[in-house]
Amino acid sequence: MRIHHLRLENYRGVDFLEIDFPADGVTIIEGDNEVGKSSIPEAIDLLLTERDDANKRSVKAVKPVHQDVGTVVEIELSSGRYHFRYRKRWHRERETSLEILTPAKSQLTGREAHDRVRAILEETLDEGLWRALRLRQGTTIEQASFAGGSLGRALDLAAGGTASGGNEDDLWGRITTEYERYWTPTGQMKAERKEAATAVAESVERVADLEEVLRSLEDDAKKVARLTEHDQTLAQKQAANNHELAGLLAQSDAISAQRNEVDRLGAQRDTAQANLRLAQAENERRAELVRRLHDANETVVSNNAQITAAVPTQAQAAQQLADVERDVTAAQATLAEAETAHRRAVADSDYRRQQIETDQLSERHQRVVAAREDQAAARATVETSLVDDDLVQRIETAHLERATAEAAATSGAATVDVEALSAIQIEIDGQPVALAAGDQHRIEVGGSAQVVLPGTISMVVKAGTGAQDLAERLRRAEADFAAACEQGAVAGLAEARKVALARNDAAGALVRLEKSIAQDLRDLTAELLAQKVDSLTQRVAAYSNGRSAEPPLPADFDAAQALAAQGERARQAAQDHLDRLSRDLTVATENVHRVEQGGVAARARLEQADKAFSEATAALEVARQERNDDTVAEGYMAAERAMGACLEALTIAETSLAAADPGAVEDRRSNAEAVETRLANERHTNETSIRDLRARLHLRGEEGLAGKLDIEKSTLLQRQMEHEQLEGRAVAARVLNDTFATRRAEAQQRYEAPFREHIEQLGRLVFGPTLEIELDADLSIARRTLDGISLDFDQLSIGAQEQLGMISRLACASIVASEGGAPVIFDDALGWSDPGRLAAMAAVIALAGRHGQILVLTCTPERYSDVGNATVIQLPTGSIATAETRR
Amino acid sequence: MTRHFLSVDAQARFTADRIEAITSIGRLAEAEGCSFVVVSGDVFESNQVERLVVVRSLEAMKATPDVVFYLLPGNHDPLDATSIFGSKTFRDHCPPNVITLEGGAEIPAADGITIVSAPWPNKRPLTDLVTAAVAPLPTDGTLRVVVGHGAVDTLSPNPNDPALIRLADVEAALADGRIHYVALGDRHSTTSVGTTGRVWYAGAPEPTDYREADPGHALVVDLSHESVSVVPHRIGRWEFQHRQFDLAGRPDCDGVQQFLEAIVDKPRTIVKLTLVGQLSLADMDHLERTLDDASYLLGALERWERHSELVVLPADNEFADLGLSGFALDALEDLQALGRSDNDGAQAARDALALLYRLAATV
């Protein structure tokens, strides 16, 4: 669309305004505030959309205040292949007129004209785009809204795709609306569908419940039939059982009669048994009396025999006692002899031992005496010796010092070596020395030495002071040695050593002797030892003198000891023999005593037996007088016979009773009675069950369950169909929605790239060569990247937002310009830009202006002063104006 | 008797007409001078029917007090512990001219005529009840009507059912002159059984289902030892019709329309349509409207069948007319390709196309 000419009359504050627009390029409309700049786009919209008779607030609002005049808007524009002039007058003398210039000239008025323009615009103008390309005063930072798809459509077309129009967008809206009827934004089932499914499930459950109830009723009916049948079976059983019970009761009566007979016979038997017991008792008593008499007699006889038999036994016992007593006396004598012999043997043994002891003690005593004498000699040696070990040590030391000093004196002295050249006699220190020819002689000079060649010379040789000191040491050493020897009264070292050795030997003998004495004395003194020897010697002599010659003394101690042991054994044997005989004696004594006592007891028993015999004889006599023995025996036998008869009768009766098997009859009868009770109970239970079931069935039968089930099944079918249809629609809606959504996204991706590139191309003029942008799904700018720094659109400065908003519109406009497009309108924009950016934006606007119509409305013309090739229209401040055009 | 396909008012009409059929039978008996009416079982749909059904039915029979109705318990309403004939509602509302046939001794029903009945004691009897009831009857000159229920062996598809009525036995008894007419129930279609002309199923007096061959009658029987005449009288007012149509285009749709328009008593006609074939969206749209219109008039129109074999596939030009372009055109072509394929999603794609058509056509 291109706007060529505009004319306003009585539009808001504008009385009259007429503008010619160049078809392409930038048109800057300058004017102060409130001269009607913003009215220009508004008036164009009003003309294109509102009928002349519209009564809307937006129409009323443009009427000048306090003036009763008609508002006129007239424009000349081209859109697609159409070029026309269009005019409307509102409020007064309303009119609409249209003059189409191309492609075919025609003129229309009124409603017809309005509809025609709508049709033309519908065909040729993207109204969404027309609005999107506008940047309005006061909303400078808003991004172009391409959400309606206008830009997308235009871009799609520009990118070579097939055009899709408003139809498609509407359709897409309907599809999403349809989709949203069944699906939530997250693709879940909507409540309506869940409810439908739930309703089906509920119906299914209710149908199942009702069917279950009906089935249970049917089961109950079957149960009633079964129970009824069972009851009949029970009744038959009951009859059969009653019959059997009657028979058993008859049998039971017969058995009772038999049992009575058995009881009677049993009583008879009891009586017979009592009689028998009495007769038997009497019989036994009589036998007892007879036996007792017999026994008494026996006792008397046996006692007499015992007494007679005991007499030799007594004599024998007495004899035995006497024998034992004699043996005892003999044994006692033997023992005494043995003891005497034993004591003598022991004494002999002691004697021989004391003899030995006496010898030993006397020997010890003699050794002690000898040792005492040796001790005295040794002590004398020690006490007289003057040389002890210390003195020896001193003499040795002095001897060594002397020898050392001698050696030192000899070596330290001066030497004179004399060699005889011919035999010569010389004197040395007055001593003549003969020397043969060739002899050599050395003279040691201690202090001084005088060598005389007799007759010739006398020569004194003197040693130095060192030699004199050595000589002095030697003299002192000799003196010490002499003193030590004198103290020990010895001649020299050898003697001193000998004397000291003798002394030490004597001292050792002293110790040895002391020990020997102690050994021999032990705990005694020498005197006590001597006394002991004396007393022992006397005692031995006394025993020897006092002892009889016979038997002779044993030869030695060992023989004596052997004899003593032998005596002891003989004594012990005699003692043992005596002990045994003593025990025999006790036994024999007791035996005699016992035999005597037996005799006394036997006599006492005999007395008793005699008495018992007399009593038994008397008792039997009394009894026989009352009833004799035969009578008693006969009564007993009669009672036995009566008892036998009774038992026989009883056995026959009992056998008969047992044959009737009363236990079995009784068991069967009680069983039959139990069966009767059981059957009665069972029938009662059965009848109760039947009654209860019938009552329940009648009650439930009134509920009309079949009808309810029928209705419920119908409801279920209905709900299932509705649910299926609903699900089918839901699936169809989803498939449709998904297919469209996929294709739509693809299309958007297709035209997004060229749009972005175009924005970047224009934007780089303002922001520099590193500018990159990202677009949202609705083609608005999401992010800007500059020098590698990315910022969301919202984070950008207001100026940058405004600039990008303008650039995106310009980019869009120039892309779609070739397909017709629409004018870009900026109303008082760029209020937030610095001068540098303003200049750059001016270049952008100028560049975009080559491919489209751009209308810039501004009250600050200097903002756009850098836009080259712009047509500037200045709106006058007055109310009636024809805008001046200046190029 | 509730039918899911019936609307609320149609259901009410149907229920009322079923009761009305009883009244009609009474009136017919009066008009024809019948001695009595026998109902051969399944008087009620179940022993558990609603009380109102029992009350209304008995009230309908009470309307003709001189006509005696003999009611036989059948397999639907057997004489077990749940029997509706023993229910309090039935006993409380049973008029003097209604008698339940409970078997046992034959009942003198009119001058020289007795009724021999073979009621069902439960839902699954194990014997031929009719033969059992007939067996002890003597040939003594009594004119006997046997009232029985169940399938006859010559007509039954299940020869192993022990309860089947053995037609040979029945016909032998007829030949012996021990019995003279056998009124059977169970089949909903009016049927003469065998060759004697004395054994009949009267059929349902009011149709209840599509499968019934010739329902809706009451039989008027003129009976003597020597002769019998049986005349069916139309009682039922409803009709069940099941039709299948092969659809390939508009003319076939028109055929459906003509069939529906030709139905005379539309409010009492229940139609089930099985539709097979393939239609364009526009034709389907047209058909839907036709069926919608018919459903307003008919007692019921069952048009939904599970696994319907009617495929709706839009003709290519149908969408061309919509003039879609851009991404919408691409999406349309995707759906058309899928819809024409044998893929799993083909049906869903066709449904989606139909939806698209609807949405786009109203833009």
What does the model show?
The complex is a heterodimer of chains A (887) and B (363). With 887 residues, chain A is an alpha+beta fold. Chain A has a domain at 389-499. Chain A has 17 helices and 21 strands. Chain A has helices spanning 39-49, 57-60, 110-124, 127-132, 150-158, 166-182, 191-384, 389-412, 465-487, 493-521, 526-546, 557-626, 629-659, 662-701, 705-767, 798-816, 835-848; strands at residues 2-11, 14-20, 25-30, 71-79, 82-90, 95-102, 106-109, 134-135, 414-419, 424-428, 431-435, 440-445, 448-453, 457-462, 772-775, 781-786, 789-792, 824-827, 853-858, 871-874, 884-886. In chain A, helix 7 (191-384) packs across helix 15 (705-767). The longest helix of chain A has 194 residues, at 191-384. Chain A is flat. Chain B is an alpha/beta fold and 363 residues long. Chain B has three domains: 8-234, 4-Layer Sandwich (Purple Acid Phosphatase, chain A, domain 2), CATH 3.60.21.10; 238-312; 315-363, no CATH class. Chain B has ten helices and 15 strands. In chain B, the strands form four sheets. Chain B has a six-stranded mixed sheet. In chain B, strands 12, 13, 14 and 15 form a four-stranded parallel sheet that branches. A three-stranded parallel sheet of chain B has the order 1-2-3, covered by helices on one side. The longest helix of chain B has 25 residues, at 8-32. Chain B is elongated. The two termini of chain B are 46 Å apart. The chains are: A alpha+beta (887), B alpha/beta (363). The interface between A and B is large, with 60 and 49 residues.
